[in-house]
Design brief:
The protein is of the alpha/beta class and 179 residues long. The chain contains five helices and seven strands. The longest helix is centred in the middle third of the chain and has 14 residues.
């Protein structure tokens, strides 16, 4: 797994040990960021961060800051190592937390993100959709884009305006706009 574009293009990323993390394929990341266009200067939230590949790709392409949230300590160790490898640890926050609790805390703190990347475990996606759709409006603006990655057979369907949807093999990518 490598960074596809930007200042860290070609740098290798490591994935956490175990089978719980399923890093986004390079070709899917490339297609996603082609859809998104410029992420220059954005504040990014990589929720269910795993290896951090999506958020680090955004940083490499010019995002101002990325916050990485995951409940697995091994995943966050990989995120930290990957941020160090691309020299962007100073532009990132790494938080061990359950995703829904993190969103509640972020809302209380008045945080607003420009781009939110959601890549939960595929088998949990459907069960998370309602709770995510309830909490996300508190941390987004009208201009925020929310990206979901899920299995096309059990998609993560958010009750937010859908801007684009694509499938790559068994992977479904959807881009929503804030409300």
């Amino acid at each position: 797994m490598r960074i596809v574009a930007g200042e860290a293009k070609g740098r290798r990323l490591r994935a956490p040990a175990g089978r719980e993390t399923r890093p986004t394929a390079d070709r899917v990341r490339e297609a996603l960021f082609s859809i998104l266009g410029s992420v220059e200067g954005l504040r990014v939230l990589d929720l269910f961060a795993g290896s951090g590949a999506l958020g680090i790709e955004a940083l490499s392409r010019g995002a101002a800051r990325a916050d990485f949230v995951d409940s697995d300590a091994r995943a966050l160790a990989a995120v930290r190592a990957n941020l160090d490898a691309v020299g962007r640890a100073h532009d990132a926050g790494v938080v061990r937390a359950e995703a829904l609790r993190y969103l509640t805390r972020a809302a209380r703190a008045g945080e607003v993100f420009d781009l939110i990347l959601l890549d939960p475990p595929y088998d949990a996606a459907r069960g998370l959709a309602g709770a995510l759709a309830q909490r996300l409006p508190d941390v987004i603006s009208h201009e925020t884009r929310i990206v979901t990655e899920s299995d096309k057979r059990t998609p993560l369907l958010l009750d937010l305006p859908l801007e684009r949807e694509r499938t790559y093999g068994d992977t479904r990518i959807a881009v929503h706009r804030g409300v």
